[in-house]
Write a structure and sequence with these properties.
With 604 residues, this protein is an alpha+beta fold. It has 19 helices and 28 strands.
Length: 604
């Protein structure tokens, strides 16, 4: 919008939003980083926080009052937010240490009317805001039209990418079989249907993929899974080809998105019980169910857990994807060593080279997220995104952190490597090795069935804690099968999580260390949970299979800090990397890989 006041764009947009709130007789408004489907990564139309504030990360929430505003994000983005938020427009808060609901209760005027878009907040989140407003005699007001959208005059249109079938050879189970498997559980619980609003759940259930969200093959839509195994899919028909319609078959009824609300209200006509997820579905969904008199059973999305437990075909696909991606990484690391030695390399040129190498493969579909390419102090910004303004050279004596991944039709990859540019300092090597020890502890861990990731998290941090160090992000997140690079319900984290790790789940193993203003370290592989057949055990035991295939920089390892078992693990891992990737590499890169993966006791 035009700037008639001489204010910065962020200041003018905030002022315009406040004027719109006053016009609607609202004392404040909540702006989540969300779309109607509660995706982590959202299409351009839903990047309201980016437009309002200039912040470019993927996790944030803003609360705007008429006289103050607060910006909330997590530990991955606090440094980035400090650099991107203009002036003193927003009070910056760590979202877990200073939750939005507590701030609302402390700052909303007595009796204030706090607006929110019921499409953009989950039912659980809306209830927290409602109770916070109520504590000061205020009211949470659901708006019919988003006031921020009213001032965003050039807001992009909704995406309309085509839908494609996910072949059975990669899915491993037909959509009909999945629907009937889940429907049996609904029927056993006397549930007539389940409301599905998570785009990855629908993609998994219907064996389809789309392109509505950057780097994640999602088709934005809604669905109802019924207890007889049939489904109703609410999707823009312009996204569907005859091939997709044939793929879906007679068990999936197609409807326009506008029919979703009436369908939700109609569920209550016969008094049947319906499952809906208050932690993952918009408050609007629950409003519609209540308006129809539906008996709502609040519970988890029934697709999330079975989607997380990959079948044999999906695991075979992800192994193939990681070999393919590992070969691309090895070629990149070989190139990087030569190019960095010439002294002319920077973050953006390295990022472009890695993307170009990946894109050469016929099965490459997209990156799985925006590459984090951080040199020196930029590597300490956990989810850094290089720009022409922030772009740094890869200078001798520094560390370079690159966190990247790709989407292939048979799997999703995510890998982080920290590379020494020239000679690292003793401190860099000591801290890298402590991170590596935590990484190895997770990779080697054996644990009884029923163990959650929260119970394993301390293993990754132990050696950092002994030196008074830590990192402010989770140790592991779930990863999809040609779906989201972040998926639940499993994770390895300090945060409470009762979901047990189960065979077939894929999680990342990514401890790190970040010295603000200096450098960042992270070592990330993806691992699959596997059942172990161990002699003498008294209960079923599980462990991890490391999927990622790429060398870990030996120049950054202080061998004196590793135990014999840790060194043996690393040598064995590097042997696996060499065996898997050598046939895929040209001769010069293969020779480099042989040197990069030689046993630690072979010296430098």
């Amino acid at each position: 919008m035009n700037d008639p006041t001489g204010l910065s764009p962020a200041a003018e947009r905030l002022s315009a939003l406040r004027r719109e709130l006053e016009r609607r007789q609202l004392d404040g408004f909540i702006v989540p980083m969300a779309d109607e489907f509660q995706n982590e990564y959202v299409p351009a139309r839903a990047k309201r926080i980016a437009w309002l504030t200039g912040f470019g990360g993927s996790a944030a929430l803003v609360v705007v009052l008429l006289d103050r505003a607060a910006f909330f994000t997590d530990g991955r983005y606090t440094l980035q937010a400090k650099g991107q938020l203009a002036g003193d427009l927003y009070q910056l808060h760590h979202i877990t240490e200073s939750p939005p609901a507590a701030w609302i209760e402390a700052n909303l005027p007595v009796g204030g009317r706090l607006g929110f878009d019921p499409w953009l907040s989950t039912e659980d989140a809306a209830e927290r805001y409602r109770q916070a407003a109520k504590a000061v005699g205020g009211e949470l007001v659901a708006v019919e039209a988003n006031p921020l959208d009213a001032i965003w005059l050039d807001q992009p249109p909704p995406p309309l990418a085509p839908v494609v079938p996910q072949p059975l050879q990669f899915a491993g189970e037909s959509s009909a079989d999945k629907r009937h498997r889940l429907a049996k559980d609904l029927a056993a619980k006397d549930l007539a249907a389940a409301v599905l609003t998570a785009s990855d759940s629908i993609a998994w259930l219907l064996n389809i993929r789309g392109g509505d969200v950057a780097h994640t093959p999602l088709a934005l839509s809604f669905a109802l899974l019924r207890s007889d195994g049939s489904a109703d899919w609410f999707v823009d028909p312009r996204k569907l080809s005859p091939e997709v319609r044939e793929h879906l078959g007679n068990g999936v009824a197609l409807h326009a998105p506008e029919a979703f609300g009436p369908a939700l209200r109609a569920l209550g006509h016969d008094g049947a019980a319906v499952l809906a997820d208050p932690a993952g579905s918009a408050a609007w969904v629950f409003e519609q169910l209540a308006a129809g008199g539906t008996r709502v059973v609040r519970g988890a999305d029934p697709c999330q857990l079975p989607k997380a437990c990959k079948n044999a075909a999906e695991l075979a696909g992800t192994r193939a994807a990681h070999r393919r991606d590992g070969a691309a990484m090895a070629r990149f690391l070989y190139w990087l060593e030569g190019a960095a030695g010439e002294g002319a390399l920077d973050e953006l040129s390295a990022e472009r080279q890695l993307a170009a190498i990946r894109a050469e493969h016929a099965m490459f579909r997209d990156l799985s997220f925006d590459t984090i390419s951080g040199a020196g102090p930029n590597g300490a910004i956990v989810h850094y995104r290089a720009t022409p303004e922030s772009n740094r050279g890869l200078l001798a004596g520094s560390l370079y952190l690159v966190d990247s991944g790709a989407q292939y039709p048979d799997g999703t990859t995510d890998i982080t490597r920290t590379i020494a540019i020239g000679q690292p300092t003793d401190e860099m090597r000591e801290r890298f090795t402590r991170v590596l020890k935590g990484h190895i502890a997770i990779a080697r861990c054996r644990f009884p069935k029923g163990t959650s990731g929260a119970q394993l998290d301390a293993l990754a941090r132990y050696h950092l804690w002994q030196a008074g160090l830590d990192y402010d992000h989770g140790t592991g997140h779930g990863v999809g099968s040609y779906l989201g690079v972040h998926e639940g319900p499993q994770r390895i984290s300090k945060l409470p999580n009762a979901v047990a790790l189960q065979p077939g789940m894929i999680v990342s193993n990514e401890p790190g260390y970040y010295k603000a203003g200096a450098y960042g370290i992270r070592i990330e592989n993806l691992v699959a949970v596997i059942a172990l057949d161990l002699p003498g055990t008294e209960r079923p035991m599980l462990g991890f299979e490391t999927l990622t295939r790429a060398p870990i920089d030996r120049r950054l390892i202080d061998r004196t800090l590793l135990t014999e078992e840790e060194q043996a693990w690393l040598d064995d891992y590097h042997a696996q990397v060499l065996n898997a990737l050598r046939p895929e590499l040209p001769d010069e890169a293969a020779a480099w890989l042989e040197a990069a993966t030689r046993p630690l006791d072979a010296g430098d």
